Amino acid sequence: MAFHLFKRNNEPRPIFATLGTDMHCHLIPAVDDGSKCTEESLECLRTLKSVGYSKVYITPHFQHPRFPNNEDDIVRRYGELCNAAAEAGIDIELAGIAGEYRIDSGFKARLDNPRFLQVAGKYVLVELSLHQQMPGADEMIFDMQMKGYDLILAHPERYPYLNIDGPRIEQLLNQGVYLQVNALSLGGFYGEEARRRAYAIIERGWVSFIGTDTHNTLYCQALRELSHSRKIEKLLEKHEFMNNTL
After folding, report:
1. Element (H, E) at 88
2. Cα–Cα distance for residue pair 155/23, rounded to 1 Å
3. Where are the domains of the chain?
4. Alpha-carbon span 209 to 98, nearest angstrom
5. E-only strand ranges, 128-233
6. 3-state SS class at 101
7. What is the distance between the alpha carbons of residues 70 and 173, in angstroms, rounded to a whole number?
8. R_g over Cα of the chain
């Protein structure tokens, strides 16, 4: 199966070169709702390179019970992808394997016997439910921090119940939780409300990381289209993010 979707007259621009590192994507084949096969993962890596990224951390879902992934298995599969990328001659650094950990009904058990795959060996990427607030989520975030973990909250713009004008998001920031916005939110990929919220929290200086959250070639097509946005290019130039510290 071929995944080359784009015409020569729609060549991408390296709009994300100032960030350098993508620290959130789902390119381990067939372990979550991301890439389905190695060929698709390689095509996504080519796209990330074409829009300016030089370095990638891959972050498969750990979510109970939907994606009951095992860290050892994920590390093994990551090694296989690294080998495939090297054989394909893809000029992008696969810098490490991490995870996107859902704070859900199974998270408490994980806290009791923790082994978190961390971005750059220092940050745990966590996500909340996309639909409704889970009771006890804030307490589990605090417990993680008490155990010494630095947390990045993935795509806060996508949680409709997380009021950006309310006290909760500022409380998380005051606790030292880093925020990561999805690049595609800026182009309306997840809807107008997520787009508006993404711009708002970036303009307030609350966002430390931009991630692509790339899952498959549909996301890649949107990234290539996004790379032609002068508005987003100016936004990335105006604000400082921590991607290039990874």
Report:
1. helix 71-88
2. 12
3. 8-245
4. 15
5. 150-154, 178-182, 207-211
6. strand
7. 30
8. 17
pTM of the predicted model as reported, rounded to 2 decimal places: 0.94
Q: Which residues of 139-174 are buried (b: 16+ CB within 10 A; e: fewer)?
A: ebbeebeeeebebbbbbbbbbeebebeeeebeebbe
Evaluate whether 125 touches 101 at the Cβ level (below 8 Å): yes
Tell me the C-alpha distance between 227 and 235, whole Å: 12
Mean pLDDT by 10 residues, the chain (246 residues): 47 97 98 98 98 98 95 98 98 98 92 93 97 91 95 98 92 96 98 98 98 98 97 96 97
Phi, psi of 223 (to 5 degrees): -65, -40
Report whether 26 contacts 60 (CB < 8 A): yes
- On whether the CB atoms of residues 206 and 169 are closer than 8 A, the answer is yes
- Amino acid at the residue 68: P
What is the number of residues in the chain? Answer: 246
Quote the CA–CA distance of 191 and 32 in Å, as a whole number: 23
Q: What is the rounded CA–CA span in Å between residue 79 and residue 142?
A: 33
| H-run or E-run covering 221 | helix 217-226
Q: What is the pLDDT of residue 3?
A: 43
- CATH 3.20.20.140 fits domain 8-245: yes
For tokens 């370095």, name the residue.
Answer: 55
Tokens 């690294």 correspond to what residue?
82
